[in-house]
Amino acid sequence: MQIRFTFHDRRFTATLADNPSARDLFSLLPLDLQIDDYAQNEKIAYLPRKLTEAGSGPFSGEAPGDFCYYAPWGNLIFFHAGYRYSRGLIRLGRIEEGTAPLLLRGQFPLRAERLG
After folding, report:
1. Residues 112 and 4 sit within 8 Å (Cβ to Cβ)
2. Boundaries of domain holding 59
3. pLDDT band at 116, cuts 50/70/90?
4. Structural domain count, the chain
5. pLDDT beyond 90 at 55
6. Least trusted range by pLDDT, from 11-15, 28-32, 34-38, 96-100
7. Residues whose CB is less than 8 angstroms from the CB of residue 96 and which lie 6 or more positions away in sequence, other chains included
8. Is residue 103 helix, strand or coil?
9. What is the spatial distance between Cα 26 and Cα 24, in angstroms, rounded to a whole number?
10. Cys bridge to 77: 6, 19, 54, 68, which one at CB 3.0-4.6 A?
């Protein structure tokens, strides 16, 4: 399963992990959201509802390009720099083309749609 994200004339694709949270997100598509900066290493976007947390738990191998869900706040996270796992974080997949599109600072409308 893949998702194409578009904001401010920038596009990137995320390949989803095979987990209940990723499948739940895929079922919501297409979505029109807002993407915004958070901290110095990520962009976030709030979903219209919370995703399932079934099957979630700690993970390792954190890296820029990870695409996650933060269950306590109900938001998507796009990591463009290093980070560490924290409780409530669920990895949804990976950004395919690298993190360059995420380096544009600011808040923008974000379109998320299915690819295949």
Report:
1. yes
2. 2-115
3. low
4. 1
5. no
6. 96-100
7. 2, 12, 13, 14, 15
8. helix
9. 5
10. 68
